[in-house]
Amino acid sequence: MKAIVKYRAVYLMMLPIIAYFLIFAYYPLVRGFVISFQQFRLIGDRPFVGLDNYAQVLKDSAFWDTFANTLIIGGSILAIGFIMPIALALLLNEVFASWFKKIVQMVVYLPHLFSWVVVGGMWIMMLSPDTGIVNQLLLALGAEKPIGFMSQEAYARPVMVFTAVWKEVGFTCILYLAAIVSINPSLYEAARIDGANRWHLVRYVTLPQLVSTMKVVLMLHVMSVLKMFDQIFVMRNGAIAGKVDVIMMYTYQKGILEFQIGMATAAGFLVILATLIITFVIRILIRYDEE
Amino acid sequence: MNRNRPYTSWQSRCFDIANIALMLLLMSSMIIPFLNTFALAFSSNLASMTPGIVLWPKEFSVEGFTTVWNRMQLYLPFMNNVIVTVVGTAAHVLLSSMAGYVLVQQGIPGKKLMISFIMITMMVPGEAIMIPLYVVNRDLGLLNTLSSLIIAGLVSGFSVLLMRNFFQSIPGEMAESARMDGAGDFRIFATMYLPLASAGLATVTLFEFVSRWNQFTPALLYISDQTKYTLQIALKSLIVDTDSTSSNFIITTNVRMAGIVIALIPLIAIYPYVQKYFVKGIMLGANKE
């Protein structure tokens, strides 16, 4: 008690932060949980309807379509977006000219800085069949007619996966490079004395030293894949919506456009539940907390 | 870096050449989109609509910029974006470092509790509660105000933990002895701790600046009044919505790309600093507790 009085100024400094999290994190969470069991109306009473909202969501085929899209697109981004930066970092580390290495780092990192509106807008323009630079290149290389990347269902998902990986590969790569720099040089010395060649050094020294970074990256990516929204919202269009709309898109449409607040909130909580379960399982699988 | 002598066998040489070629290819895939965007932005209306591989302006002109800035009034959302970014970043940095300061003080009852309280907020994906957040903002009368956007992400667990990590290197006795001398905690925080964690402040400021400048979902949810639009929302309707033809003229490609270039410039301006601090920051922030 005496300590609390002594440190009252410290608590006072913490007060705005606690208040913010209470009002804009905990309260919406609890409020949302309540709403997901209610028939939500703007005016009038809001009767509790038990699990009706959840049942409605789970019976909605549109929900399962977006669920499948999330799994396919998110899973692909997760897999490709996990391997590519590691490969890139290892290859880049084999470059001897440090000025060249610096330039590559600077360039590949660039797209990470920009919003999906900017990146999505650029790619929509570049992939356009009439004047887009991608189709112009393909035509110059001998393609017969331009491809409607953003209007044909067959290309829709690959385009989303490609642009997502394109945007983040450099950033993740730099995380690995930072880890590579901090590897103890004497490990390489020792391996070389034992007769290791260039490939051996990568395979048996560098790669094992990157495992803990890989774990961090994997956790960050898993969390971000389930909540992907901006990219799809910006890059989707009527022609390909069925192939690319993800769960968050479903929530947005139900809640904001159709004003089915109850259903939208229930869908949101299903995502939270999925996130918690998946992160929990992965934490155990990759032994995240050990070391 | 880890080795001091290059390899000389012919296999190694071949690999090096292929590797460099691959890097060049990769770099072009990153650079060409930006070159293309800049080139089109600085082309004339007509030239920007004709097909071709454009890496340099065709018929150099700033028509795109004048149209998007004056006629389409992009300066309004641009100014809104500046306000939200500057105020939001300043408030975020101050509050996050205050919380970080509190969490490194020794012997405070309930410190563990406060840390868990903050860390739990990091486990819930913000997007998943976007509808309840919308309801809360509506109930508080914050819809269609810039305040709602400043409040969205006012503090984050990530930044708090990051600042805490930076403050941890400062010996705790310093605060204790200053307190003995009668200094208030806010003064100790502002005059002793903040100056010693300038790298931390720079990291959080840059992180927050970038994410504020790019903030999209909150603006999409809370703002429907056109005069309160932020840059990203205005750009979305300018660039992406294909029917964004206003009553009396067609939006040409150079206009759209000029919009993108305007959104890129502040971020490119801070890019050299970003490189310096980002990696350190994210690794510190991802540190396991």
Entry summary:
Chain A is mainly α and 291 residues long. In chain A, 75% of the residues lie in helices and 0% in strands.
Whole-number radius of gyration of chain A?
Answer: 24 Å
User: What percent strand of chain A?
Assistant: under 5%
Question: How many strands of chain A?
Answer: 0
CATH level 3 topology of chain A: MetI-like fold
How many domain regions of chain A?
1
Helix/strand/pairing category of chain B: mainly alpha
Looking at this protein, list some descriptive labels.
heterodimer, A: 291 residues, mainly alpha, MetI-like fold, 15 helices, 75% helix, B: 289 residues, globular
Describe the secondary-structure layout.
The complex is a heterodimer of chains A (291) and B (289).
Chain A: H1 2-6, H2 8-35, H3 52-59, H4 61-93, H5 98-109, H6 116-126, H7 133-140, H8 153-181, H9 185-193, H10 198-209, H11 211-226, H12 230-235, H13 241-244, H14 247-257, H15 261-285
Chain B: H1 10-41, H2 45-48, H3 63-71, H4 75-102, H5 111-123, H6 130-139, H7 146-151, H8 157-167, H9 172-180, H10 185-196, H11 198-213, H12 217-222, H13 231-240, H14 253-285
Helix pairs in contact in B: 1-14, 3-14, 4-8, 4-11, 4-13, 8-11, 8-14, 11-14, 13-14
Protein name (chain B): ABC transporter permease
Family (chain B): Belongs to the binding-protein-dependent transport system permease family.
Keywords (chain B): Cell membrane, Membrane, Transmembrane, Transmembrane helix, Transport
Structure notes:
The complex is a heterodimer of chains A (291) and B (289). With 291 residues, chain A is mostly helical. Chain A has a single domain (49-285), classed as MetI-like fold (Orthogonal Bundle). In chain A, 75% of the residues lie in helices and 0% in strands. Chain A has helices spanning 2-6, 8-35, 52-59, 61-93, 98-109, 116-126, 133-140, 153-181, 185-193, 198-209, 211-226, 230-235, 241-244, 247-257, 261-285. With 289 residues, chain B is mostly helical. Chain B has a domain at 73-237 and 262-285: Orthogonal Bundle (MetI-like fold), CATH 1.10.3720. In chain B, helix 11 packs antiparallel against helix 14 and helix 13 packs across helix 14. The interface between A and B is large, with 105 and 97 residues.
